């Protein structure tokens, strides 16, 4: 693992150096402000609710917003692909990928996916009346010039175990990546002790001299499959089975623990997992064996479940991104 991490470090560092020196070209989108929401580590920082938070915030500031994403694991034949035109969803989650589809469900802005983010952004500019693009998870996509890079830091694992992939979870050299950031948001701050949060804030403020915000990912509602909200106290004292395809399912469990169930078990799948009937049979059998009162999943996983779903007592836990200390987008209102 150590050798593989060194090789990964060499490749990513060389690539960043080539961009820094202008040997590899970068391309801007004329007349459009591009704001990237990304991270240094792989998954688990809460990008999806953060992107939606900033889309709403920018709209309140009078901006005309579109979201551009790679559409990871989307099975599409067209590049770029319009997921939503801001009024209706035009494709399935299988085509778009889970996160862009979730943006389309929760927002009334155009959502476009494409492996080449520059081409996708140009496509968005040509087809929609916009002045701002939020780039979802594009911090390492150096080909596209951005006006602002907002880097999310998972409070529960801020330094990616201190190693690059595959030994740790860092996507690139920590110091070099953080120097490129315009600002930081420490996410999931409610899952660590206050003293540890203060240490993190001091570290990023003193080390990189960039604005630092603090956010939490709190429970907004418990819903049935039709989206009808149910009382959160339903989970108190009950036996709960969790299933998800997340980079960090432990944080999902910690969130559910805050609702005081009597017992929890988890079924974990790989990040961005596309669920099949055999997966649902496994989940149902596990729930039966543990005598679960409720089966809980996430919004991100719900959009990847088969349409003809038949699972008793299945509910979706919706998470809300909330800023506790908001120093983001400084200067944009001027």
From TrEMBL:
Entry-linked SUPFAM superfamilies: P-loop containing nucleoside triphosphate hydrolases (SSF52540)
Q: Which GO terms describe its biological process?
A: lipid A biosynthetic process; lipopolysaccharide core region biosynthetic process
Instruction: Give the record's GO CC terms.
Output: plasma membrane
- Read off the Pfam families from this record: LpxK
Catalytic activity annotated for this protein?
a lipid A disaccharide + ATP = a lipid IVA + ADP + H(+)
Which keywords does this chain's UniProt record carry? ATP-binding, Kinase, Lipid A biosynthesis, Lipid biosynthesis, Lipid metabolism, Nucleotide-binding, Transferase
* Residues binding ATP: 41-48
Q: Which InterPro entries match?
A: LpxK, P-loop_NTPase
The protein's superkingdom reads Bacteria
EC number(s) recorded for this UniProt protein: 2.7.1.130
Q: Which GO terms describe its molecular function?
A: ATP binding; lipid-A 4'-kinase activity
The pathway to which it is assigned is: Glycolipid biosynthesis; lipid IV(A) biosynthesis; lipid IV(A) from (3R)-3-hydroxytetradecanoyl-[acyl-carrier-protein] and UDP-N-acetyl-alpha-D-glucosamine: step 6/6
List the transmembrane segments.
Answer: none
The protein's job, in short, is: Transfers the gamma-phosphate of ATP to the 4'-position of a tetraacyldisaccharide 1-phosphate intermediate (termed DS-1-P) to form tetraacyldisaccharide 1,4'-bis-phosphate (lipid IVA).
Task: Tell me its family.
Answer: Belongs to the LpxK family.
The name under which this protein is listed is Tetraacyldisaccharide 4'-kinase
């Amino acid at each position: 693992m150590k050798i593989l991490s060194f090789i990964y470090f060499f490749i990513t560092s060389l690539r960043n150096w080539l961009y820094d020196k202008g040997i590899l070209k970068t391309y801007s989108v004329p007349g459009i402000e591009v704001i990237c929401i990304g991270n240094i580590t792989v998954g688990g920082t809460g990008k999806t609710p953060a992107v939606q938070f900033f889309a709403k915030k920018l709209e309140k500031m009078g901006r005309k917003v579109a979201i551009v994403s790679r559409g990871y694991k989307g099975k599409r034949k067209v590049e770029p692909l319009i997921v939503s035109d801001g009024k209706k969803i035009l494709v399935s989650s299988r085509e778009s990928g889970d996160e862009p589809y979730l943006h389309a469900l929760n927002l009334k802005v155009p959502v476009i996916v494409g492996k080449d983010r520059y081409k996708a952004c140009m496509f968005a500019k040509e087809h929609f009346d916009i002045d701002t693009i939020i780039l979802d998870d594009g911090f390492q996509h150096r080909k596209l010039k951005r006006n602002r890079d907002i880097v999310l830091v998972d409070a529960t694992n801020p330094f990616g175990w201190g190693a690059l992939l595959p030994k740790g979870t860092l996507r690139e050299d920590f110091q070099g990546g953080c120097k490129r950031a315009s600002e930081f948001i420490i996410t999931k701050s409610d899952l660590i002790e206050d003293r540890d949060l203060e240490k993190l804030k001091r570290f990023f403020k003193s080390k990189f001299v960039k604005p630092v915000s603090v956010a939490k990912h709190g429970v907004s509602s418990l819903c049935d499959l039709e989206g009808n909200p149910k009382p959160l106290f339903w989970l108190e004292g009950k036996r709960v089975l969790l299933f998800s395809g997340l980079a960090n399912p432990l944080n999902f469990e910690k969130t559910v623990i805050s609702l005081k169930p009597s017992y929890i078990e988890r079924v974990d799948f790989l990040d961005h997992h596309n669920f099949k009937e055999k997966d649902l049979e496994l989940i149902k059998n596990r729930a039966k064996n543990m005598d679960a009162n409720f089966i809980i999943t996430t919004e991100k996983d719900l959009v990847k479940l088969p349409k003809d779903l038949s699972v008793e007592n299945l509910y979706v836990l919706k998470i809300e991104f909330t800023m506790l200390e908001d120093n983001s987008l400084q200067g944009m209102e001027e």
